[in-house]
Every structure is written in structure tokens, then in C-alpha cells.
């Protein structure tokens, strides 16, 4: 991905993203959501997931969950497409992805239009028994997701909100 955020990092093997950060100002809304997911052309084949096919095709109840939300990357079509690279995707339980995780993205969207926001996030892998996508996609199933958002209020004081989800 390009822009003011860093690329996700990848562990040695299997290729799994584990943390990210980005800085955002007012939403420019200059790019629509891509209709698909893509391998990342900026990393080697070994560091990409094996396929872009949905996780639900392997195990029902799982989505392709964005690490850096697609809705945050709207400054350009290139940036938005980058948010759909599989290096920015990990298995997420559907109700979590479309529920409380999406709520964190809504909060970010509100705050970014008031003041610049700085976001850090990550995923932890602690339970091998639920790694349903290792053979099909080459990625483990995250067991914990976390995010921290920093902004400032009108007086310049730091305001921080954070989440840690099992």
C-alpha cells in the first residue's frame, strides 16, 4: 500500500500480517471500493497468501477482514486498491468484522474529519487449533485484534481510544 501509512509486516512462515499504522486527515472520498481482492505486487509470492478466494469458501462464518480498513484509504484509486491486497487481509469471524470491528472504523471516520488521526493496530496468533486457512491460503487465524487511535481535541490535548478484542 502507498500513502502515509506503513506496510504491514510479515512473519517468516507462513506469511501473516501482524501490525500496521497510518496517519489520516479529512476523508477525500476520491476512490470507490474495489470489487475484488488482489495479491500484493510489491512483495514476493512467498509473502502473499496462496489465493484471494474468500475464507467462507473454506469455512463458513469467516470474512476477509481488513487490517487497514478499505474505507480509510480513499485518497486515490491506487491507495484504495492497495487496501484490498491480501497482505492487508486476515481471517475474521463475520459477526466481529461486520460488528464491533466495523464500529472502530466508524469512530475513526468521525474523528479524522475533526482532526488528524494516528492509528496503530495489530493481530496476535495464540491458538493453533483454529488455523483453518493455513493449507488453503497460507495464513493463520488471528486470535486477538487490537487498535489504538490518537487525535487531539480543540485545545491541542491528546485524546486516545484503544481496543483489544479476543
From TrEMBL:
Top-level taxon in the UniProt lineage: Eukaryota
Keyword terms of this UniProt record: Metal-binding
Pfam family, one: Endonuclease_NS
Residues bound to Mg(2+): 97
Domain DNA/RNA non-specific endonuclease/pyrophosphatase/phosphodiesterase, residue spans: 3-165
Catalytic residues identified in the record: 66
Molecular functions per Gene Ontology: endonuclease activity; hydrolase activity; metal ion binding; nucleic acid binding
Keyword Protease (UniProt): no
Name this polypeptide is given: DNA/RNA non-specific endonuclease/pyrophosphatase/phosphodiesterase domain-containing protein
Amino acid at each position: 500500500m502507498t500513502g502515509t501509512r506503513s506496510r504491514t509486516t510479515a512473519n517468516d512462515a507462513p506469511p501473516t500480517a501482524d501490525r500496521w499504522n497510518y496517519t489520516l486527515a479529512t476523508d477525500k472520498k476520491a476512490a470507490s471500493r474495489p470489487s475484488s481482492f488482489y495479491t500484493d505486487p510489491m512483495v514476493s509470492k512467498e509473502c502473499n497468501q496462496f489465493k484471494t478466494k474468500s475464507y467462507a469458501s473454506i469455512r463458513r462464518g469467516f470474512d476477509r477482514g481488513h487490517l487497514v480498513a478499505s474505507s480509510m484509504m480513499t485518497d486515490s484509486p491506487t491507495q484504495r486498491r492497495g487496501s484490498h491486497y491480501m497482505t492487508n487481509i486476515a481471517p475474521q469471524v463475520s459477526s466481529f468484522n461486520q460488528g464491533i470491528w466495523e464500529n472502530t472504523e466508524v469512530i475513526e471516520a468521525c474523528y479524522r474529519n475533526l482532526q488528524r488521526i494516528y492509528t496503530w493496530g495489530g493481530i496476535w496468533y495464540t491458538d493453533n487449533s483454529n488455523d483453518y486457512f493455513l493449507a488453503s491460503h497460507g495464513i493463520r487465524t488471528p486470535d486477538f485484534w487490537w487498535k489504538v487511535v490518537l487525535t487531539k481535541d480543540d485545545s491541542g490535548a491528546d485524546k486516545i481510544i484503544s481496543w483489544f478484542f479476543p
